Amino acid sequence: MRKSVVIAALGLALALTSSLGFAAGSGPHAAWMDWKPGNDVSNIASLQRGAANFMGYCAGCHSLKYNRYSRVAADLNIPEEQMEKLLLLPGTKKGDYMISPMQAVDGEAWFGKAPPDLSLITRSKGSDYVFQFLKTFYVDPKHPNGTNNLALPGTAMPHVLSALQGLQEAKFETVEKTVDGAKVSESHWQSFELASPGQLSAEEYDAFLRDTVNFLEYAGEPYKAKRQSLGVWVILFLLVFTGFAYLLKREYWKDVK
Question: What is the pLDDT of residue 140?
Fold first, then answer.
């Protein structure tokens, strides 16, 4: 069980850290490209669930090397007892950085590439992309692992969350167009059709992804929620200060006029 989670999690990072690409069959702009997680880094309950998702599916292979267990627990209001039980990997301490136990040489030997760090994945790729990637796996018998992805066609990552989402088939429409005098056929994505249900409904799976993406966004900038909250007060202060500055200006210039 542990090994399968490790292998599945590695595929996630390999895919997410690859170059952003659009499937040839998705068309110039498809509906899935507008899917957004709608996550909120100020939602502590969501972040707690996301942390659990990360530790269950990703931490065996992937690090969050800029985050400490103790900092995450403090920010997410996780009691120390629960932190030690649910967050800490075997052999780690609460003050340690969240480093995966997998050795880079093992990752390279098994998969051809060492598992990358996920600390800044949402900052480099964007939360929308991570959400879309995890939602757009579909059955593809021609692909080595049996699945493909609209957001990252040809991805080496298997659908590690298929037990939760289920297996879906993609419906494409063939469109012919002329390019440099030659006719070219393209397959444009139309919709998904669930072929094999998973443990979660579509709404529950979206919620699972939203929490996971939310935690990864927090990991990329732990101070973001506080920064946004403080920003409101800064803007209010500047508005009030501007008002006083305007009144002072009128007082200085009234005699000149």
Answer: 94
Whole-model pTM above 0.85? no
DSSP class per residue in the chain:
-HHHHHHHHHHHHHHHTSPP---TTS-SS-GGGG------TT-HHHHHHHHHHHHHHTTTT--EEEEEHHHHHHHTT--HHHIIIIIPPTT--TTSEE--SS-HHHHHHHHSSPPPP-TTHHHHH-HHHHHHHHH-EEE-TTSTTSEEESSSTT-S---TTHHHHEEEEEEEEEEEEEETTEEEEEEEEEEEEEEEE-SS-HHHHHHHHHHHHHHHHHHH-TTHHHHHHHHHHHHHHHHHHHHHHHHHHHHHHTTT-
Provide the pLDDT for residue 53: 94
Candidate CATH numbers 3.40.50.300, 1.50.40.10, 1.10.760.10, 1.10.10.10; the one for domain 2-165+199-222? 1.10.760.10
| Residue corresponding to tokens 């895919």 | 15
Q: What is the DSSP string of 29-49?
A: S-GGGG------TT-HHHHHH
Low-confidence ranges of the chain (pLDDT < 50): 1-8, 10, 15, 17-25
CA-to-CA distance for 116 and 106, rounded, in angstroms? 13
- Given this model, what pLDDT does residue 68 score? 95
Residue boundaries of the structural domains of the chain: 2-165+199-222, 230-257
